Amino acid sequence: MDFKETYREAEALFDEGNYQEAEPLLREIIKRNPGYPDVLNKLGVISSLKGSMKEAAGYFELALKQNPNYTEASLNLAITYNEMNEFIKARDIFAKAAQIAHPSPAALDPFVRGKLANEHFKLGNKYMDYALYEEAIEEYKKALRLRRDLVDVRTRLGIAFRNKEMFDEAVSQFTMAKELNPAYGTAWVQLGLTYYMQGLTGLAIEEWETALRQNPGLKEARTYLKLLREKEQS
Prior knowledge:
The chain is mostly helical. The protein has helices spanning 3-15, 19-32, 37-49, 53-66, 71-83, 87-101, 110-129, 133-146, 151-163, 167-180, 185-197, 201-214, 219-233.
């Protein structure tokens, strides 16, 4: 099989998701001609799927060395760094990828914008795990600058604000999440909990009861109402 045929076959196998057969062909291509950043990116994706994050990062880094404006490789490298807990590197790559793709977030390709937003969201969640609320807030805000309609991100931002006792800001985020998607029960539940923490029991009950009317299977709202009523009866 000549070089072009090998390349076409490897690309077709990769696109079909047949990574096991694609990988040796991709490696052969790079061995014969290392100047293919898209092949390096594909090898990085395969390594990532196999759980070999260090190897994946190496491939993405090589792809970017050959083509610094390769947005997909930048995003893949950022995701890989995030999985390796290299949060600062991940953040820097996110910013660079966004700048390369387009100078303003609003003008980014929707796919790129959504992918970047999701990575900021995941990084924010990592910060939340370690109670680093200011850092989490900043990441959630970055995600929302890219995609303001992400109600799960907005709700997590509200929780981060509440954890810092910034109740007005928390209420604002939960309310916006409700307006964007009234069926998103978690926003109603968290808004009710925020009211309850402020001593506004009546408003909390109203939120939880409304959440249950919209989604009878919402266990958190049912549990909070049950505990509140038991407390009132004791």
